[in-house]
Specification:
Shape: globular
Number of strands: 19
Organism: Polypedilum vanderplanki (Sleeping chironomid midge)
Largest sheet: 10 strands, mixed
CATH superfamily: Trypsin-like serine proteases
Pfam families: Trypsin
Protein name: Peptidase S1 domain-containing protein
Family: Belongs to the peptidase S1 family. CLIP subfamily.
Number of helices: 4
Keywords: Disulfide bond, Signal
Mean pLDDT: 81
């Protein structure tokens, strides 16, 4: 499937979905977020990043992000795959317009493993794995520009990360007004904040299985970056600690926190699938 064709199609079909809750102060949940106010990434900076083009039953084409965590699995957000029929993973690509992905894999709904307790109405357990066993990643070929990334272990708590700087990358919509996705991979650095600061805005939709990232100076995730992994550096090593889940409907540049699915509570669930024979 042509990456350039999909890019052209998405320019006119980026969509977002919001669900309003009375408990949220003048806000609502939204998924399919992208990077606003980002910095251009270097070619080899995010080798684990995947672009996910997802076709819905309604024939809408949606865009999400994923992270390579093994030669057989990509991790992303469960809400990306509601009412899915098929999808394509593009890995090893940096500029969506100028490059052909060295790895592109067509997947069916049967290849996606949603958390069994995922709740689409609240985004609880918003986590999924895509099985690419039929066409595993080859990390030995440097021309592929792909590499896996570690997931932080279950021993790390939310409080351990508060105050640390997280890095999130994505392609696409860079302002609230601009509906076109970005050709270039962009990233932002932002502070991980206490869950209390998210509860002030999002109420009881925030749980211990979430993590929140501060958004300021109009730098945030925005349309299309759902499922992207939040990267942190611990003892000199890079890990992903969370997946983009939802944010405020008011816009990407309003300095509301971004809410993630926190990975340590799901560490055993992930390993039970990834390490399955």
């Amino acid at each position: 499937m042509s990456l350039k064709f999909l890019l052209f199609f998405l320019t006119f079909s980026i969509c977002s979905y919001a669900l309003k809750f009375d408990t949220i102060s003048q806000s609502s949940l939204k998924f399919n977020r992208k990077i606003a106010g980002g910095t251009k990434a270097e070619r080899n900076e995010f080798l684990y990043k995947c672009a996910l083009y997802i076709t819905k039953i309604t024939e809408e084409l949606n865009f999400c992000s994923g992270s390579i965590i093994s030669d057989r699995f990509v991790i992303s957000a469960a809400h990306c795959f509601s009412n899915i029929t098929t999808g394509v993973i593009f890995a090893g690509v940096h500029n969506l317009k100028e490059e052909e992905a060295p790895y592109d894999y067509d997947f069916e709904v049967t290849d996606v493993i949603l958390h069994e307790e995922y709740d689409a109405s609240t985004y609880l357990n918003d986590i999924a794995l895509i099985n690419v066993t039929a066409y595993p990643f080859d990390f030995t070929n440097s021309k592929n520009f792909i590499q896996k990334i570690q997931i932080v272990t279950e021993l790390i708590s939310n409080d351990n990360l508060v105050g640390m700087i997280g890095r999130i990358a994505g392609w696409g919509q860079t302002t609230d007004e601009n509906r076109e996705i970005s050709n270039e991979l962009l990233y932002i650095d932002a502070e991980i904040i206490d869950l209390y600061n998210c509860k002030v805005i999002f109420g009881n939709k925030i749980r211990s299985t979430n993590l929140c990232l501060k958004s300021d100076d109009s730098r945030s995730t925005c349309q299309g970056d759902s499922g992207g992994g939040l990267q942190v550096t611990i003892n000199g090593e890079n890990f992903i600690v969370a997946l983009v889940s939802f944010g405020a409907e008011d816009g990407c540049e309003k300095n509301y926190p971004v809410v993630f699915t926190f990975l340590p509570p799901y560490f055993k669930w992930i390993n039970s699938i990834v390490n399955r024979d």
